[in-house]
Amino acid sequence: MKIRKEIKSIGLLGLWTTILMLGGVSATLQASTEEKPNIIFIMLDEWGYYEMSALGHPLIETPNIDRMAEEGMRFTQLLAGGNICAPTRASVMLGQHTGSTAKRDNNPASPIPADEITVAEVLKEAGYATGGFGKWGLGDRGTSGVPEKHGFDVFFGYYNQIHAHTYYPNYLLFNSIKLPLPGNTGHAYRGETWSHDLIHDAAMHFIRDNAGRQPFFAYLPYALPHAFYGIPEDDPAYLKYKETVWDDAPQHHNNPAIAPPDEAVRYAAFMGLADRNLGEILDTLEELGIADNTLVIICGDNGGNPNAFMNANYPNGFFAPNTDPKTGVTFRGGKGNFYEGGLRIAFLAHWPGTIEAGSVTDHLGYFPDFMPTAAELAGVETPERSDGISFVPTLMGKPEEQQQHDYLYWEDPFSVAIRQGDWKAIRPRGSNQFELYDLSTDISESNNIADEHPDILNRLKALAEEAHTPPRLGEVYDESLGFQGHGAR
Q1: Whether pLDDT at 23 is above 60
Q2: pTM of the model
C-alpha cells in the first residue's frame, strides 16, 4: 500500500509502535474492568452547516455523513465554541467558553498554559488510550501547549495552524518530533507526499491498534475542507468532480500563480474525501465488532465561510454553507463573526444501539459541553474550570433529564455575543453598541430590536460582563522550535 510505504520511508511506523506501546501499557494499567465506550471526535475545518446531501445540498454528495444522520442523531443547535480556528479548538479541548479559555485569538505564538486540563487528560486518567491526528492549534513545538503534554499519548499532524495551510508541508510533527515529508517544499498545491492520507492512515492505525485492548479517545481535527485545496489529481474524490462544469463558480483565491482554476471542484472533492474517510471509520468499527460501544461525533469547527466562493451572482457563496437549500433562509454572517452563520455548525452523533436512529434534537449547547459529556461516559468527574453541561441525556433519548444552560457566551478581541434561550445579544466587530435579536422569529438576525427591549438587553449585557475573565497566558520555551514557514510556495 502506497501510504504505508510513505509512512515507513519517513520513519513513522517505528516511532508510532514504540509510543503506542508505552501509552497502551499506561492506559491498560489504569483502566477499570467496567466497559467504557470508545469516543471518536471528528472535526472538519470550515465545514458549513448545510454542506451535506442529507439537508438537500444540490452540489455536494455526502453518503456517509447522510448515513450518520440516518443511523444516529443530528443536532440543530450544538454551536461552535468560537468563530475561528484556535479559540474553537480550545473550547472543545478545555471544556470552556471563550470568556474563560486561555486561547481567544488565532495567534499561533500564544499557547495554552501547562496547567490547563484537556479532555484528553480527563479520559487518560479514566484509562483511555488517547490519540490526536490533524490540526492542533493550541501550542507549537517548544511551548507549554504541545498536545503530548496535555493528555495525548500520541499526536500526529500540525501543531501550528498556519503550518496546516498546505497539504504538502515540508514536515509533520509526531509528539513534537519533526518528520520531513519527501519531495515537499510547502507549496500550497504541489508536492510528492500528501499529508492528509498520512494523518488519516495513522488515525486508522490507532483505532485498530486499541480496539478491544482498552477504551480509546481518537480526536481527529482534520484540516479538510479548509483551503488551500491541494489534492492529488488521481484521488477518487477529485476524479468524481473533475468533469463537473461550474463555469460561473467564483475562485476562492485569485492569484493564478498559486491557485488552479478549479478551486470549487477541489472544495467539493475535499468534502467527498472527508465523507469517504468517515465511511472508512464507520466500516472499520463494524469490522472490529466495536461499533456498538463507540460514540462517533462529526462536526464543523466554526460556521461556514460564505466568502470563500462569493461574487455578485453568489452573495451567500457558491456552496452557500449557511443557506438552507430548501427554503433559502440564511444564517447571517459566517466564519469570523458571532452571528448565527459564524456559530452554527453541522454536528452529528452515531452510537448504534444507544442513540435512536434518525433522531434530530434542537437541544441548545456548544463545544464546552463535550468535556463533561466525555467525562460522564468515562465515569469520572469533570474539571471544575469547565463551563460545559453534559449532553449524555440527549444522546440517550432522555430530554426530560437534560440540564440546560442559563446562557451561552462567546468573545474574541473584537466582539462579544451572549445567548439566553432564543434571545441573543451581539456587539459586532467595529461597534461599541450591542444588537439584540429574537432567534425564535428572526433566525437570520435581520431585525435589531435592542431599542424595543432595553430590559432584556441590559440583563444579557450584565451576564456577558460576568462571563468574561482575563485570559491566562502560556509560555514559549524555545521559539526556534516552532513553525518557521513553508519555504517555497
Answers
A1: no
A2: 0.94
